[in-house]
Amino acid sequence: MINIKELYFSYPYGKKVFEGLNFSLKRGETVGLTGANGAGKTTLFHLIMGLLKPDAGEIEIFEKARKVERDFIEVRQRIGLVFQDSDDQLFCPTVEEDIAFGPLNLGKSQEETKAVVGEVCEKLGLKGFERKVTHRLSGGEKRLVALATIVAMNPECFLIDEPVAGLDDVTTDRFLRYLKEYGNTYIIITHDQEFLKSAVDKVYILKGSKIIPR
Ligand SMILES: Nc1ncnc2c1ncn2[C@@H]1O[C@H](COP(=O)(O)OP(=O)(O)O)[C@@H](O)[C@H]1O
Ligand SMILES: [Mg+2]
Fold first, then answer.
1. Model's pTM, two decimal places?
2. Could you report the per-residue pLDDT of 172-193, keeping only the tens digit for each?
3. Residues with CB in 5 Å of ion ligand 2
């Protein structure tokens, strides 16, 4: 599904983050990604989504080389990124507007979207949250809403950036339950080893431009 070959990336005026990174993910794989702060985990997700562009190397997604902005439009429709900071994900006044944003953007009608929002809220235990003001929710509630905005787009793959940092056990369990129910292929960045044990099949470490099995 995702094939990365000899990827080079550095931020403008920043240090080199990747110098020849290789990584691949197959359909149906559930993977944990760990590594020190600043190793480049979030950067890797942003490169996969086309939010950043590499200096060199190849990114192949869904059997197609992805180079220019136009190539990534399809990627962003089929792969869902749950941001490290929920406030980057949620920008509408209310929960239902945030969840509706993706389906509307994918070309669904108002009516279809309304049905999707209802269904997703039901699935993710967010019934009664539809009209709530997003920025007033607790950190854990925002996490679930952020996941809901992605589930609403029914992606083939989820990229999830530190989902459980700061969540209590009950919310963590809920997050995990929903993810396993609605996600078939995903990569989760986390330092939480306990969470990884129940969430993924394999764990990789990102260190010095290499992704190696733990
Ligand atoms: N927008 C940016 N501009 C410059 N440097 C950045 C930017 N974002 C991240 N970095 C740097 O790139 C490196 C990788 O960051 P990041 O991908 O966020 O790491 P991780 O998610 O593994 O903690 C770090 O050294 C970080 O300081
Ligand atoms: Mg990060």
1. 0.94
2. 888 898 889 889 999 999 999 9
3. 41-42
